[in-house]
Amino acid sequence: MNKEEQVMMGFRNLLNKMAWLNKVKMEESLKDYKPSEVHYIESIEKNVDSNVTKLAESLYMTRGAISKMTKKFEKKGLIESYQKSDNKKEIYFRLTPQGKAIYKIHEQLHKEFQARDKAVFEQVTEEQFDSMLNFVEKYSKHLDAEIKKLGLDSKSE
To answer: Which residues sit opposite 81 in a β-bridge?
Structure first.
């Protein structure tokens, strides 16, 4: 196995282990919600003036899938829609108090997971962080270009 394959397998294994380790606690604390639903809530909270297009881009989902989830979450009372006085055409979304409660639970879990893994990150040098971040950025840009080439970005839908 060459180094490229080792890196890719290493990333997959890391992500799978993190997901497996975090799953029990996440399911226990957020038992009524699927991971995709929790990430949807997180995306609305973290993106100012979230609309269907912004959410589709940040979650790598189609606008149709986002629209479906939006209707579902409005019915559940987790989000509400609003319009700006200067733009009556566009519809935006924000969390309701119930949605914010889910977001806060999710954030608290992330802090717990970070604390659990802190010992590893304390050993990483600035140069190592810079190198890893540089790689992640380059690879991400490459994948963005590949997505665009295939017409899979949410804007082309």
So the answer is: 93
**What's the CA gap between 66 and 56, in Å, rounded?**
6
Q: Return the exposure string of 87-113: e unless at least 16 CB atoms fall within 10 Å of the residue's CB, then b.
A: eeeeebbebeeebeebbebbeebeeee
Per-residue pLDDT reduced to its tens digit, 77-117: 999 999 988 878 899 999 999 999 999 999 999 999 999 99
Rounded Cα distance between 143 and 60, Å, is 12
Average pLDDT over residues 68-74: 94
Taking the C-alpha atoms of residue 48 and residue 45, their distance in angstroms, rounded to an integer, is 7
* Closest by Cα among 140, 127, 44, 133 to 92: 44
**Strand-pair category, 87-95 with 79-84:** antiparallel
Nearby residues of 70 by Cβ (< 8 Å), 6 or more positions away: 52, 55, 79, 81, 93
Rounded Cα distance, 134 and 6, in Å: 18
Taking the alpha carbons of 135, 137, 140, 142 in that order, is the dihedral positive or negative? negative
Quick one: tokens of 19?
A: 């997901």
Burial category of 47 from C-beta neighbours within 10 Å (exposed 0-12, middle 13-18, buried 19 and up): middle
